[in-house]
Amino acid sequence: MSHHLIVRVVSKLLIPFILLFALYVQFHGDFGPGGGFQAGVIFASAFILYALVFGLDNARRVLPEWVTRAGIALGVLIYGGTGVVGILLGHNYLDYSPLGSTAPLGQHIGISVIEFGVGMTVASVMATIFLAFAGRNRDLFDLEE
Amino acid sequence: MISPHLPALQIVLPLLSAPVCVLLRRSILTYAVTVAICWLTFAIAVLLLQQVLASGPISYRLGGWAPPWGIEYRVDTVNAYVLLIVSAIGAIVITAARPTVEREVGEDVQYLFYTCALLCLAGMLGVTITGDAFNLFVFLEISSLSSYVLVSLRRDRRALTAAFHYLIFGTIGATFYLIGVGLLYQATGTLNIADLAVRVAGVTDSQSVRAAFAFMVVGIAIKAAVFPVHIWLPNAYAYAPSIVSALLAATATKVAIYVLLRVFLTIFGPVFAFSTMPLGEMLVALAVVAMFVGSAVAIFQEDVKRMLAYSSVAQIGYMILGIGLATSLGLTGGILHLFNHAVIKGGLFLVMACVFYRIGSVQLVDFAGLGRRMPWTMAAFVVGGLSLIGVPLTTGFVSKWYLILGALDKGWWWLAVLILLSSLLAVIYVWRVVEVAYFRAPPEAATRLEAPVSLLVPTWVLIAANIYFGIDTRVSVGVAKRAAEALMGVGA
Fold this sequence. Notes:
The complex is a heterodimer.
Chain A: H1 5-27, H2 36-54, H3 56-62, H4 65-88, H5 103-135
Chain B: H1 6-24, H2 27-55, E1 58-61, E2 72-75, H3 77-95, H4 97-104, H5 110-129, H6 133-152, H7 157-188, H8 193-200, H9 207-224, H10 232-239, H11 242-267, H12 269-276, H13 279-299, H14 304-324, H15 328-359, H16 370-373, H17 375-389, H18 395-409, H19 413-439, H20 453-471, H21 474-491
Antiparallel strand pairs in B: 1-2
């Protein structure tokens, strides 16, 4: 779709704002609606828009396979690792209270960190699923046209 | 400092090593990590069982939130026993994985094999340890989704359709279970299993609780491959990589049977399950049909792995029979068979792994002369087969003995006869393989081809366990008895 001038210009304008909005949903998640799942999907949708407009090869250059694979694994590790920190600080698994000076502050920090992990994994998984399907039968439906 | 956190570590170790394997990616490294973690989880399961036997049930509050609001891990005799079975089989089978995985799984996806094996193990252990009905569903899905992937990883296109069927059936099963949990939540307002057990007793005459019961029976029966809903099992086991067949046959259905016990005897209670609802009669009828149909179909299989898979359907029948008898003696037999079948089928499927590794096929015709070409492997098959039949001095005998005692105790002598008759069918299908392997000449120019030691040792460990627990029954029978009494005692 890269020869459509309007589509190209509008996407270029929109993509930074979609990414920014994803980060807003991510970090505002503990005050209002939002959180890691939603933010991850929004973040990945910016990437999917980019892939649709500028082609799969460019998309893979932006987000190589090893990045998405590491993102999937690291997100889970961040979530689970935060729980393990609870054990190391003498509390139960997934108890975030000892992470801050007071229990509510600790839980606040804990939730923000694990939601970041969730966002990372969800965004990487969405991108991977899209690329896996788009990468099949590339000669039949060439997205780069 | 570690010991109070053992219940959490039991799950967290395999769960978090799975993403580590994705990051490591090198096949040999992921294998090393997986083996180390599997043996660690086994050690934790041993410690947990010791703690439970010494000082009673353990409760662990995840995130520090008290039950019934928070999620609780609850370890008592029953699930400590199942945790031990699952982690022991997992550790032994995964140790044997390296050579056959190299041969059967594509080079670029081997790290995914170990990742999914760890996730599958974490899911099954989680199902067993959790004290929360919804959390149980989540773990059930973790173990199921990873086992669909495991089945599909073999370099054989038939594995893909088998995995797809397994996925459809497994998803239906999980959904039915979830509908049941939803209805129970609506009726009682709680998801904690211990809390549900108290509250369900007060609302058993409501239509929605009965509907929840029915949904959960069907859902869990699909997961456990109970007779009429077993059809996903033979293909999934036959076309999966050899190690996956051994792992799933020895653990996945056992965990589903554990869920059956937990849901019906703890949540609904024996009185509601067996007196108000006709669960006992239904299970006995289905179990008897499974014992005969499973064994009869197994006799006509040309693929030995498929034959063992159908034999699993029959063996699951024996476990269900023990539960359906609804007495603590019958239940002891059922729970005992859970353990015994795990060592029998784990061992026999590892024998198939050895054969496939050397011959590249598990068709019956290709077994010709294998008794001379792979003497140790086929000797393991003979011992495992004897245990499957239930010959004295093997574990198979012990559990059938308790099942027959349970049947006679109820005055159902005809059932005892049926158990014996169905064991005779097992003689036929085991004999077919033995005959071809020992009494038919090997093909021309065939040389001695014993399986590598790294495969033979784990196989023989499981096979030797068949003999050991067939003679020294103190541990297995003792724990099974305590577990059965604890389960039946809840509602009595």
